[in-house]
């Protein structure tokens, strides 16, 4: 599709989606001012979709790999059951202090447990069965995240995976040969061939996979 048309559609979609609240607007502004790659955050449309999924599932436990500045964490936390918890994992320790400050200011500190370290490793040691997971860390590690996250999800629970089209790079394969694109292509094939899940690839932004766990 022409770039201009894509931009027009994105704008129209955003203009016909409930606007982000003040907390998210301020977080997006701060992320733009203080980080080098602010486009990493989910943004208003995907953020609202994550919130909707979370409210529909009404999870007791949510897992997230790749917290960044906390935009998606805040959206996901909105749908938690009373007393529920979001475990979110971020590898960059310089994000710990701003994240804890943000969760406190946003009034969700009691709902969020932040882990600093490698999501693929940390998840192995979490003795929790999650209702929902959102995978949004290092694209090269996607197959490993999926393998390690899968056993931690309840039967009937959901795994959401971001950036599964990686702009147009997944489609441009085999021209695109970088490790990030390869990781995503490998993951997409693993999910598609995994008969333990039902899955749909939603073409929002640069692709969001939603997989429902059918059995262990
Ligand atoms: C795309 S951003 C996440 C955006 C966030 N989920 C949102 O929507 O606002 C990816 C984040 O994953 C983090 N990350 C990369 N590798 C990771 C790993 N192995 N474990 C946990 N986090 C990781 C990066 O430091 C970065 O902050």
Furnish the topology, listing elements before pairings:
Elements: H1 3-15, H2 22-34, H3 43-57, E1 61-65, H4 71-77, E2 85-90, H5 96-105, E3 112-116, H6 119-122, E4 130-135, H7 142-149, E5 153-162, H8 169-172, H9 179-192, E6 197-202, E7 208-213
Parallel strand pairs: 1-2, 1-4, 2-3, 4-5
Antiparallel strand pairs: 5-7, 6-7
Bound molecules: S-adenosylmethionine.
What would you say this structure looks like, in words?
Helix 7 links the parallel strand 4 (130-135) and strand 5. The radius of gyration is 17 Å and the shape is globular. The protein is an alpha/beta fold and 216 residues long. It has nine helices and seven strands, in the order H-H-H-E-H-E-H-E-H-E-H-E-H-H-E-E. The chain is 41% helix and 20% strand. The chain has a single domain, classed as 3-Layer(aba) Sandwich (Rossmann fold). Strands 3-2-1-4-5-7-6 form a seven-stranded mixed beta sheet, sandwiched between helices. It has helices spanning 3-15, 22-34, 43-57, 71-77, 96-105, 119-122, 142-149, 169-172, 179-192, and strands at residues 61-65, 85-90, 112-116, 130-135, 153-162, 197-202, 208-213. Bound molecules: S-adenosylmethionine (SAM).
Task: Tell me briefly what this model is.
This protein has 216 residues and is α/β, with parallel strands linked by helices. It has nine helices and seven strands; from the N terminus they run αααβαβαβαβαβααββ.
